[in-house]
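Sharing a chain and its predicted structure for anyone who wants a worked example. Both blocks are below, sequence first, tokens second.
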Amino acid sequence: MTDQSYPYIINQGLWNNNAALVQILGLCPLLAVSNTVINSLGLGLATTLTLVASNGTVSLIRRWVRPEIRIPVFVLIIASVVTVIELAMNAWFHELYLILGIFIPLIVTNCTIIARAESFASKNALIPSVLDGLFMGIGFMAVLVVLGAIRELVGFGTLLSHADLMFGEIGKSMTIQPWKQYTGYLLAILPPGAFLGLGFIIAIKNIFDKRRSRKVQKVVVSEPELA
């Protein structure tokens, strides 16, 4: 893997192979926790850290792991990383940890993490593997936060409510309430609202991709004519 391929890795993680929008993986925490921005950000950061640490570790030991036991070894590594993150969140972000609940240990079962360990980190050097984990995590977290922002804004009429759970005392002044008299829309914070919100985001991505593809095709067609 050369330095020239780094932009490709970044683009794959953020857009072309986004875990939530293209691979449609990790839907359980994506849909269950994304009712506020802070909840989404907390779980997104935990998932990103897991991807970076597990990818890096798998890359370092890839030459010494026998093929027939690689999956159990990868799962053990991921479970160890998640346990460390869970204990750290319990110690430093206890109230947020209580809200996220079972979905923190369930990061172990996120198909994106084991898929990146198997398909990428086990076949590439340390730096590309860490970069892949980082931007796959950021791509997943971005979708999580956008979905959380949509659901919180429509469902509660606020943004960044309870930011103090993550940012401390300064977070109490970060709450945004665009409409003072807005009472909220219950559907947005229920499971159907999560599906509708994710479908809306996927639809926007697909529209953008189609428009970009048409522009590229026009350029390709016009080049021979100019020649």
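Comments welcome. DSSP finds ten helices and no strands in the chain.
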